[in-house]
Specification:
It comes from Aplosporella prunicola CBS 121167. This is V-type proton ATPase subunit H. Helix content is about 70%, strand content about 0%. Mean pLDDT is about 90; it is low at about 225-245. The chain contains 29 helices and no strands. The radius of gyration is 28 Å and the shape is elongated.
Amino acid sequence: MSLDPPTYILSLQNNIRARPISWEGAVRAKTITDADLKKIKSIDKVRKEQRKQTIEADEASFVALLLGADDAQNIFDAASKGKRQDIIQYMLVLTGDLVDDIPSFTKALTKHPRPFAPLLPLLKQSTNPEDPIPLLTSAVLSSLISEALTSQPKQSPQIDEALPQLYAYLSTLAKSSDNGLQDIAVQEYSALLRTSKSRSLFWKQRKETVDPLMEILKTAAGNGKDSDSTLYSGSGSIRSNADVGLSGGVGLQLLYHVLLVIWQLSFEGKLVGEGLDDEHDIITLYSALLRASPKEKTTRLLLSTLRNLLDANPSTLLPAATLAKLPALLQSLQSRHLTDEDLLEDLTSLKDLMEDYTKTQTTFDQYAAELHAGHLRWSPPHRNPAFWRENARRIIEDEQGALPKTLASILAKPWDTDKQVLAIGCNDVACLVKECPEKRGALERMGLKARVMELMADKDETVRWESLRAVGEWLRYSFE
């Protein structure tokens, strides 16, 4: 999928093209050779067709100019030694033009024994995210590596070395507060995520690559870092569409490009699905974004990503989708006047998948699924006395206590940004003790009694109340 170049980069390139360069001074200073200058002038400021003919007539020598050869230094190393930042910038723009305009030359560059080596040091030339040299370098590298991934599999060692470095640099742009820089990062990510190999490497570096993108999506959904519980309230809608819209200054273009990257990543559904939900509650987040989606093109990417993830991880993600009220949301979407054929196909497929799943579920299954999902919400079973009367013993005894052990592991976490999880967990412990007092010893050996007693001192008032109620149930049966 081809995207228009980021405006930020286009403006920078146009500015550099317009600057005069003292090429003869560089020759006199022996920064570049006469032969280098002749090659540069033969393709600089000429018509595209003429440039293409010149390059194709002597491809090898132009590859050597940019990337070096056994008997020649590459232009970037030469300019760096001569401290000619202006030449580095200009040649990066010119290289970008050649790569964009002459596909055969791009292939020739990727066939070089070390096609990325002259460019990688330029990524680290500055820590300023607005510095033009790393920005321009990342654009050239993205194009070259993208081509090499599909056409030059023999360059695998070079790709393995270069791609993590490029991902690390782009992650600094994605973390920026500047939407223009963020958009450069996500567009270049998108150009790179063309193969399973590049997507796997992207996921391997997910703390750098994926996490900042998920923060952008959470911001767009109206869910800041300090209010995680907003998304997990369990209500049908996290906020009104007017509030959710594109919150936090996230523009439609940036939102679309981030969703595109996560969609590309979702083709590795088995690899990334459970991690995305464990680390980012992506099913809940995407359900919130679906409610707020301003355009069919964003809705299409949201649905297609969910379909890829749910198809690849039905046993773990379908329960999470049920808890996020995805079936009702899909029903609501189906009533809209949607025209995109791919969107409608994904919508129908997801709706059928969810209907088939929910037909097989019981209330016990739903509760077990919520525990396995690892993120408790005030779903109906927690406050339903009839549920506990009917299911408490089964919860404790099923699979040798697997469910209360899972509950203990959930309660063991601090949940600093979502204290309601601790409150719900204490509620469940109270209900289990109340309905099955003879099982207190087994529950205590799992660490549940000690943990709810600790939580009596928690800063959160609701947690303190629910933990006190749980301890009260324990003490009530101890004294009787």
